[in-house]
Amino acid sequence: MIGKLIKSNFKNDFSHMITFFLIMVLSTFLFHTGIMIFKGYSTVYQDKLEKYNWADIAVISVLKPEDTEKIEEIISTSDYVASYEKSNPIYKEFVAERGSAIEGDSKNAFDTSTQSMYVLPYGEWGEIEAPHFSELSDEEYDNPIYLSIYLNTNVFKMKLGDTMDVKVDDKYYTFQVAGFYEGILSNGMGIAYVNPSLYEEWKLEREEKIRELVRKAKENGEDELEQEFALFNLKVNDGADADEAAGRLSQSMDEHGILARGQSVNEFISAFSLMQNMIAAMLMAFSIIIAIISMIIIYFRISNSIEQNIVNIGAIKALGYTSGQIRRAMIIEFVLTSFMAFITGIIGSYLVVPIFEEMMRSESAIVWEISFDTASFIVSFVLMIGTVILVSAVSTRGIKRLDPVTALRFGMNDNTFKKNRAPIEKTPGPLTWIMALKSLIGNTRQNIILFAVTLSIGLVTTFSAFIAYNCVYDPMNLYKLLNLETADVSLMMNKDDPGYLNELENLPEVDSVWWVDEVAMSVEGVSVISVITDDWSDVPDVNIISGRSPIYDNEIAIGGVTAQILGVDIGDEVTVSYGKEEKRYLITGIEQYSNQMGKDISMTSDGARHLDYIAQRSRYEVSVKDHSLANSKAVVGKAEDMFGNKLSRYLNIIEALKTGGISVIAIAAGMVFAMVFISVIVIVLSMNLLVKTMIIKKQKEIGIKKALGFSSGQLRTELVLSMLPQIAVGAAAGSLLGLAWSNKMLAGLLTAVGVLRSDMVIFPWMGIAAVIFVVIISFLIIWMISARIKRISAYSLITE
Questions:
Q1: Positive or negative, the Cα torsion across 722, 727, 728, 733?
Q2: CA gap 60, 129 in Å, rounded
């Protein structure tokens, strides 16, 4: 019996349900894809960490002979460490031009595929951190090399079996790419595996160089000790925290004067999964906005359906159908449509996620073998279908109070007893405008719906304009947000020489020059990167959230994440350790720096000397006049002429940002396009459903107006004018929220990399552009959809 009602409802509402179906497909697709990516990348690292017995902590150091035994004693006696393995990688710098053809020794870090790597012999690994190969060639090669997925996708861009020509030290080698492996710590550190015979050859060369350095040092009466490069891969005890263990180990090694740091696998996981989690958060936020819009439209559609079909509902009740049956028929109609949309969205999600996963390997460093995710399916199902059931049930409550006789009488009563707020005979102005005003005043529910929908779209569109300007048009703003100090050109020298600073300052294109050095230290047991310079007042743009940069030798500024971990703030004192030395420093500022996930401090070179660390002045940062590309190129060219081989490498940051040489900029551009595209789709679908509903609701009124002499064009204009004010007001409210919240929303997305506050530029025109965009798109959609008014006539509405 109820089946006939459901069938009848579908027949009468078919075009509306198609639009609702598409909205729910989009919402389900975005939400399930977002939660699947977020959950997938949150668990895949931990799953593979256990499955392949990858290391929880890596300790890498250059050890003196007497330190080797001591560091092993520290590791083996630690309460946190369950087991460990030691290896001796060889540090090498591979230089390969794009396309693997060496054409010269360009020093541009963005032009050449120059990568520092640690080399180990293939097949001679232990049980901890053994590489897991995603691709492995069956062929035998003369000189094979096995690369990490991360290095290959970001630097070399090879395929299995390709020939790779590189320069290592002063020799040229031709390798055959024999495999790609995935890992976490080994991926992040840049480990490559080569033929054991080549490894032994490089090992002997290194030992010979060390012996030669020792011999020359003795001849000159200098102390030069033979040192061993060592890598320790550690597994922590069950229940132990890898971050805490890494910090404690680093502190113990500091106390014994061993220059080594424990790096937790969690630091690498945070870095590798950052971009995926940002995209996932964006998708879920979009899906929730769309879901809210969908629920509002369900309420609007059901309420209008009840009002429109009140006579039919009364007749159905008179035939013996109960209120519960009628309500269930309406609810099932939306639930069935939502379920079909849900399944379609899930299928679309599983078609897209594998493509996304392959594209994101340059960020993730591993292969995510995608399978059916039960948890994501259940969460998506409960949220999407459960919300539809809830909203449908609430929307149909009025049917219970509807008596058949009252429904039939009300249906035949043309008088709604509403006050005529804009009488045609008394209201000045064009007739079409007066009719639009009457429609606007008399449709409170429609006004609220339009306001809510366009508010959401206005917010998203303003945020899109904000991202587009700061991350695509002027990406230096994003670069400043992620870095502690921002330069236009960075020059890396081969040695420390105070004269470089004066020579660079004298260039006419240069506005300011400063040097920085970075070294690993620890603060109260937390491993941090310490950024050092002579005088922080010489640095023109420091990313300080609050307070100031250090001035005196007993002061530091501390990263916001580190401050949160330690529970400290400006004015507190903390102990900073380096080697055997430690000293109490006063915190003068809270800073943010995306390096090492926001775990950083800054100090002066005089402050570093208290820890027996002599800063290296080999990295010079240059701010050029007007921040122009021409000046940055001129500085690079003159630096190459002045310094020659003394210049190791340079980064023309302005050029890289303008040409898309930094991957995060390209990803940001993609996100902007996706946000705008989804916004247009939401406007099209929601307006389509709303306008169709309103036309059906008013078809008798439209027919009568046509009989009175109104043209289709006038009635379409009336409809557009009656909707645009709410759309404009809603979009304006959303744009105001966007102007107020965009920096907060971006900071929330970047919290994982240590960004606690964003203060990128935001202009009023971003909100104005969003309003204009929403109004124009809405106008065009409403005008096109309202063309169906042409098919309505008074004659077609006559019933016998």
A1: positive
A2: 14
pLDDT 10s digits, 719-765: 888 888 889 999 999 999 999 999 998 888 777 667 889 999 999 99
User: How far is residue 531's CA from residue 520's CA, in Å, rounded to a whole number?
Assistant: 9
Contacts of 425 (CB under 8 A, 6+ apart): none
Determine the average pLDDT of the residues in 200-208.
Answer: 89
Kindly state the helix (H) or strand (E) to which residue 444 belongs, with its residue range: helix 444-467
Secondary structure, 3-state, 149-201: HHHHHHHHCCCCCCEEEEEECCEEEEEEEEEEEECCHHHHHCEEEECHHHHHH
Burial state string for 170-200 with b = 16 or more CB within 10 A and e = fewer than 16:
eeebebbbbbbbbbbbbbbbbbbbbbeebbe
pLDDT at 420 over 60: no
Out of 60-69, 108-117, 524-533, least confident range: 108-117
Is 785 in contact with 715 (CB distance < 8 Å)?
no
The DSSP H or E segment spanning 685 is: helix 663-697
Q: Per-residue pLDDT for 98 more than 50?
A: no
> Can you tell me which residue has the tokens 């690498």?
268
Q: Phi-psi region for residue 229, left (φ > 0), alpha (ψ -120 to 50) or beta?
A: beta
Q: Which of 491, 658, 654, 651 is nearest to 110 (CA)?
A: 651
Residue with tokens 């069950």: 238
Q: Of 618, 558, 562, 554, which Cα lies nearest the Cα of 586?
A: 554
Q: What is the pLDDT of residue 54?
A: 94
Q: How far is CA 596 from CA 59, 206, 569, 621, 757, in A?
A: 16, 30, 20, 20, 17
Nearest to 368 by CA among 791, 36, 732, 22: 36
pLDDT of residue 342: 94
Is pLDDT above 80 for 800? no
Amino acid at 245: A
Report residue 242 as tokens: 């890898």
Name the DSSP class of 581: E
Chain segment 103-149, per-residue pLDDT in tens = 444 677 666 556 778 999 999 999 999 999 999 999 999 999 999 99
Q: What is the pLDDT of residues 326-348, one digit of tens each?
A: 888 888 888 999 999 999 999 99
Residues facing residue 229 across a β-bridge: 62
Nearby residues of 541 by Cβ (< 8 Å), 6 or more positions away: 480, 485, 486, 623
Contact 550, 607 (CB under 8 A): yes
The order of strands in the sheet holding 81-87 is 81-87, 228-236, 57-63, 260-264
Q: Are the C-beta atoms of residues 509 and 624 closer than 8 Å to each other?
A: yes
Tokens 């899930």 sit on residue: 346
- How far apart CA 269 and CA 114 sit, in angstroms, is 24
pLDDT band at 409 (very low <50, low <70, confident <90, very high): low
Mean pLDDT (the chain, rounded): 83
Q: Please give the distance of CA 11 from its chain centroid, rounded to a whole number.
A: 43
Structure tokens at 452: 């809510």
Counting residues of the chain whose pLDDT is more than 90, the rounded percentage is 34
- Sign, CA torsion 460/461/463/464: positive
Residue with tokens 């580190």: 562
Q: How confident is the model at residue 449 (pLDDT cuts 50, 70, 90)?
A: confident
d(CA 97, CA 112) in angstroms, rounded, equals 5
Instruction: List all residues 6 or more positions away from 203 whose beta carbon is below 8 Å from its beta carbon.
Output: 88, 90
Q: Which residues contact 256 (CB under 8 A, 6 or more apart)?
A: 67, 70, 71, 74, 580
pTM, two decimals, is: 0.78
Of residues 632, 489, 609, 652, the one with CA closest to residue 108: 652
Tell me what the mean pLDDT of segment 280-301 comes to: 78
